Amino acid sequence: MTAVRTGAVRTRGPARGVLARYPVLVALVIAALFMVLPFLVVAVNAVKSPAEYAENGPLSLPRGLYLDGIEDFWDRVDFGRKLVNSVLISGSVAVGAAVLSVLNAYAIGIGRIRGRTWVLAFFVLANMLPQEALVYPVYYLSKQAGLYDTRLSVIIVFTVIQAAFGTYLLASVLGRFPREIIEAARIDGANKWQVLWRIVVPVSRPTIGVLLVFFFIWTWNEFLLPLVMLISNDNQTVSVALGVLQGQRLMDATMTNAAALLGVLPAIVFFLVFQRTLTRGIAVGAVK
Fold first, then answer.
1. d(CA 95, CA 116)
2. Measured between alpha carbons, how far is 288 from 284 in angstroms, rounded to an integer?
3. What pLDDT does 2 receive?
4. Are 104 and 171 in contact (CB under 8 A)?
5. Are 170 and 105 in contact (CB under 8 A)?
6. DSSP string of 211-263?
7. Rounded distance, CA 157 to CA 92, Å?
8. HSE-up of 152 (CA within 13 Å, CB side)?
9. Angstrom distance (rounded) from CA 163 to CA 141
10. Which long-range contacts link 42-51 to residues 24+ away (Cβ below 8 Å)?
C-alpha cells in the first residue's frame, strides 16, 4: 500500500511541474504581444492611404497596399544614402569595438596588468557616462582635428564608447580562461599574438559574436551624438534623418509610419539574420 502511494506521489511531481510552467508561458506570450503590437500597427499604417487612415483610424486593416507614402519618404530624405551611412557607421563601430575589446581584455584578463581592478572600474565609469556630458568635448576635439561633420568622427567616438563595455565583459570572461591551455601553447613555442588569435579568439568567438550584434544595434539607434556631429545631409544617419525631417517638414500620418518602418526594419533584419549567433553566444556563456 505504501509503495502504491509513493508511486502516485512520484507521478504527480512532474505533472505539477508542467502545470506550474503555464503561467510563466502565458506571461511571456503576453509580453511578446505587447512588444510586437506597436511594430505591427506601424507596419499596417505604413501601407494605408491618408484618406483611409483618416476614415477608419490607425487600428483598422488596410483594404490594399498603398506604397506612395514609403516611396515619397524614400525620395524626400534620400533614404538610400542615409541607409548606407548607418550601415557603414554601425558596421565599422561593431568590428572596431570588438577588436579593441579583445585586445584590451586580453591584456587585462590574461596578461594580468597591474591595477586590474582599477582599470576595469575606469571602463565601467566610462560606459556609464551620459552622452550629454560628452557632446561639447567631442565637438571641440573633432573641430580641432578637422573631423567635424565626417562619418569617421562618429565611428571613432562610438568605437571607444562601445569598447568600454566590451572590454569589461570580455575581461571578466578571459579572467577565467584556463591557464593550462596558454602555458601549453607557450611551451610549444607560441608567442603572445599567436596565443591571442589562435587560441583565445576562437574559444571566445560566441561572446565576441554577441558583442558584434549588440554594438551594431546600439550604434544604429544612436541619435544625440550623430545629430551634433553630422550636420550635412550627405553624412546623416537614418535616426538623425527621421528626427530632422519631423522637425522641418510636415508629413501625413501614413508617411510618418512609413518613416518609422523604414527606420527600424534594417535593424530587425540584422537581428534576425544573426539571431542564431546571439543565442549560441548566450547559451555558451551560461554553460561556462
1. 25
2. 6
3. 47
4. yes
5. yes
6. HHHHHHHHHHT--HHHHHH--STTT--HHHHHHHHHHHS---HHHHHHHHHHH
7. 11
8. 6
9. 19
10. 42/257, 42/260, 42/261, 42/264, 43/257, 43/261, 45/253, 45/254, 45/257, 46/70, 46/254, 46/257, 46/258, 46/260, 46/261, 48/254, 48/257, 49/254, 50/252, 50/253, 50/254
Handedness of CA 55, 60, 64, 68 (dihedral sign): positive
Scanning 175-223, the segments in alpha helix (DSSP H) are: 179-187, 192-195, 201-203, 205-220
Distance in angstroms (rounded) separating the CA atoms of residues 272 and 269: 5
3-state secondary structure of 274: coil
pLDDT in tens, 132-177: 888 999 999 999 999 999 999 999 999 999 999 999 889 888 888 8
Dihedrals φ, ψ of 232, to 5°?
-90, 150
Question: Cα 123 vs. chain centroid, distance in angstroms?
Answer: 19
pLDDT below 50 — which residues of the chain? 1-4, 6-11, 285-288
Distance of CA 78 to the CA centre of its chain: 24
Scanning the structure block, which residue is given the C-alpha cell 566610462?
A: 126
Angle at 167 between CA 161 and CA 168, to 5 degrees: 100
C-alpha cell at 13: 511531481
Task: Provide the strand spans (E) within 71-204.
Answer: none
As a whole number of angstroms, the distance between CA 197 and CA 133 comes to 36
Residue for cell digits 549560441?
280
Q: Model-level pTM?
A: 0.83
Tell me: the pLDDT tens digits for 104-121? 999 888 866 777 778 888
**CB 236, CB 244: distance < 8 Å:** yes
Cell of 251: 508629413
- d(C-alpha 141, C-alpha 154), whole Å: 12
Q: Identify the pLDDT of residue 283.
A: 52
Largest Cα separation within the chain, whole Å, is 88
Residue 166 CB neighbour total at 10 angstroms:
29
